[in-house]
Amino acid sequence: MEYREDVRVFLMYDLGTFAARSGQHKAELVKGPRDRFKGIKTNSRIEYAKNITTCAVKAINDCSDKSRKILTGVYILDKTNREVMKEVGYKKSRYWDLKHIAIDEFMDNFAKVQKEMNLKPSFKLIK
User: Is residue 126 part of a domain?
Assistant: First the structure.
């Protein structure tokens, strides 16, 4: 079984939901995924949420520096595009080009990490 999901919807909404199910806040993912349920019996839904969250964090961390800053700022820290644009120091047109590159890079990395982790059911991120 494979879920098909728009990458922006996944990053904006689903990642926060999976983070919450795994016992974390989305903003805490900047530091890396944590196991809040260590030593506690968990169900398959929580385990799956932890795995998806870990997969997404690894995929973001595997991106280039500029892509990582854009993805982290916009989708994890919930900053506006304008705020992130100022932080990375690019004008509007270049920023949007870099954001598209960052999303493509994330999609590729997510697929690789997901395959390495043998995550089932898998996510197919689409644009």
Answer: no
In the chain, how many domains are there?
A: 1
Residue 34: inside a domain, yes or no? yes
Name the nearest CA neighbour of 67 among 41, 39, 35, 101: 101
Nearest to 10 by CA among 76, 58, 65: 76
Cis peptide bond prior to 33, omega within 30° of 0:
no
Q: What is the pTM of this model?
A: 0.86
The DSSP secondary structure of 14-73, one letter per residue, reads IHHHHHHHTT--GGGGGG----TTTTS---HHHHHHHHHHHHHHHHHHTS-HHHHHHHII
Residue 4: strand pairing partners = 124
Quick check: is 124 in a domain?
Answer: no
Contact 100, 53 (CB under 8 A): no
The one-letter amino acid at 126: I
pLDDT digits (tens, 9 = 90+) for 26-49: 888 877 655 555 545 567 777 888
Residue the block writes with tokens 């019996």: 41
Q: What angle do CA 30, 35, 41 make, to 5 degrees?
A: 155
